[in-house]
Amino acid sequence: HRDLHSFPTRRSSDLLVELKENDAETWLTHSADVRYHIQEVLTSVVDAETAVRGFVVSRNPRFLDLYQSSVQAFPRRTRELLNLVADSPSQTRQAKEIKELGEKRFDLFATVLGETKNQYAGVGQRALQLIGREAELMDQLRPKIAAMDEGETRLQELNKRALQADRDLFGSVVTLSTIVGILGAVFGMVL
């Protein structure tokens, strides 16, 4: 009869630890999602750059398909990233900086394509200058993306440690609850 009193306490402890563990797992998944979306933003910019350079060099219109899909993907991917980091002012600021630099690159890509389409042969001097300018923008964009990814990697590691600590705590609670239950049963039998 007395060991039944330890059951609600054990169940409450188990539930509390389980909720804490679920919270840690949720943040771990969130960090993985943020890192994925950071890479998706970078991929859309790099794909557009590849397409523009390929078109400038070859004048092959198949490169324009990749460019167009990148132009469409970038705003969606940056919006998704901003939504994911809305809970963090510093990450929101970083994501907005990345978005602004990316938009500048896409503006330059459009200009390079316009210049290239208007020329009949070879790559014009102006197109080469614009390609140089977009490379400068990429040099500004890459460290911002890397910094944001590093920050999220640190958060992910903290979340992994928190999850492991919660799991360790859960194991301790189960062990302690079992011991208390056994002692309660023995004490109940003695009385």
The main pleated sheet reads as: none
Shape: rod-shaped
User: In angstroms, what is the radius of gyration?
Assistant: 28 Å
Strand percentage, roughly? under 5%
Unreliable residue runs: 1-5
Tally of DSSP β-strands: 0
Please estimate the helix content. over 70%
The span between the termini is 11 Å
SS-derived structural category? mainly alpha
Counting DSSP H or I runs of 4 or more residues, the number of helices is 4
Mean pLDDT: 81
Order of helices and strands: HHHH
Descriptive tags:
191 residues, mainly alpha, rod-shaped, disordered N terminus
Would you give an account of this structure?
It contains 4 helices and no strands. It has helices spanning 3-58, 62-84, 89-117, 125-190. By secondary structure, the chain is an all-alpha fold. It is rod-shaped and about 100 Å long. Helix 1 (3-58) runs parallel beside helix 3 and helix 2 packs antiparallel against helix 3.
